[in-house]
Amino acid sequence: MTRSASDSPLLFDIPLAPDFSEERRRLAQGLQYIAGIDEAGRGPLAGPVVAAAVIFDGNDLPEGLDDSKRLTAARRETLYDTILAKAITVSIASLSARSIDKSDIRKAALEAMRRAVTGLTRQPCHALIDGRDVPPGLPCPGSALVKGDQRSVSIAAASIVAKVTRDRMMIRAGLAHPLYGLEVHAGYGTAKHRAAIENDGPVPGIHRYSFSPIKGRFNI
């Protein structure tokens, strides 16, 4: 496992909004395509972990990009369409609840990121990854950026694409399993969700049996 050694910023070094400076720094080194990578869904009790990878043309960047957690759902939906229209290439990958249970959420998230990068239609020369870890097996060098979705527009775009994609998946799951309210809380452990698990049990293939309070109490 490769970890970033020196990309953790001081609080006052984080810009008010993400920009393209991290990408431009690599482009100035002669690298052609710089991918931003992020994931959504590490914490929920149900559903997949979803990762996205995005490569932009620095001369045609969408406006208003930010960490997906700092945007409203409506704003994320609008930016999602804009990102797909403007990006050179976008790739999305996910690992199911069963896959998460077979390893652990950290490994599953990193594997989803790796798959997202390999799905890009342009081979990136470098990858910028939100967090502290560089996924193993990337087809290019990578740098882990703490709070990267607040620093890099490419990572911010990836965070939006991953979040919107996962939310849409959980809406579909909610229609299939209406007792749990998945379309409302996206699988997070709200009081209503926990009560539904207690009363009706978890759903195989949807819930993460390796997560508390499901772990050790229910069998698949």
Structure, briefly:
The chain is α/β, with parallel strands linked by helices and 220 residues long. The protein has helices spanning 21-27, 73-86, 97-102, 105-118, 153-176, 182-185, 191-200, and strands spanning 2-3, 34-40, 49-55, 89-95, 126-130, 133-134, 142-145. The strands form two sheets. A five-stranded mixed sheet has the order 4-3-2-5-7.
Describe it.
With 220 residues, the chain is of the alpha/beta class. The chain has a single domain, classed as Ribonuclease H-like superfamily/Ribonuclease H (Nucleotidyltransferase, domain 5, 2-Layer Sandwich). The protein is built from seven helices and seven strands, in the order βαββαβααβββααα. It has helices at 21-27, 73-86, 97-102, 105-118, 153-176, 182-185, 191-200, and strands at residues 2-3, 34-40, 49-55, 89-95, 126-130, 133-134, 142-145. The strands form two sheets. The protein has a five-stranded mixed β-sheet with strand order 4-3-2-5-7. A two-stranded antiparallel ribbon has the order 1-6. β2 (34-40) and β3 (49-55) form a beta hairpin. α2 (73-86) crosses α5.
